[in-house]
Target: NTR domain-containing protein
Amino acid sequence: MNTKTLSLSLALLVGSLSYCYACSCMSTHPQNYYCFADFVILARVKSFQKLETMQSLVYKVRIKKEFKISEKGQVALKSGRIHTPIDSAMCGVNMKVGTLYVISGRIESLRAHTMMCDMIKEWKNLTRRQRKGLRQMYKRGCSYCTVKRCLGWGAEKCDKGSKLKDFCKWNSNCQTNDGICLRQANGSCNWNKNRQLNNCLKNSTLSHNRLHWMNYDF
Model:
């Protein structure tokens, strides 16, 4: 094997390894981010520091609002420091200094950690319903309900036999942006009715029907 062939083989191997170890996260509804996190905060990024020895980035943040936080989280976040892997291939997060984010994560060894598979969203990009969910309504659903993606890649098994569901079926961006899954009067979990969600689902259905008939336009 000549030098050029060997170099090409090594380059392809490194490329394939990088691809194999790239970070991959399942789609998660904002309510599930909230329910399963140790902390969910609204914070502005002040600065960051690379810790090569720990292979991590440490973000210094100013916390504006605590939407959810455990006792350990209160201790860990007292310093305003959040750790994330240094490399995006390891699901490390890149946040912009001066920007206001909603950040969810977990507490390990009394340190706050976040990663790409947690909720890292600029506050300005959240919908009104998502903001309301974070402030008060997601919490109401956590004890009884969860959100399940029943269609597409990463779909979960959704039991059709149960009369009283402990989950809401998540099948569209309308439910991502405007859906809050709550326990109803009959004990079953369902999307809480609101004008934004109803209008979005209605417009989505109309668009789907138009596209369907366009496909049959001779």
The CA atoms of residues 56 and 86 lie 4 Å apart. Residues 30-124 form a domain with the OB fold (Dihydrolipoamide Acetyltransferase, E2P) fold (CATH 2.40.50.120).
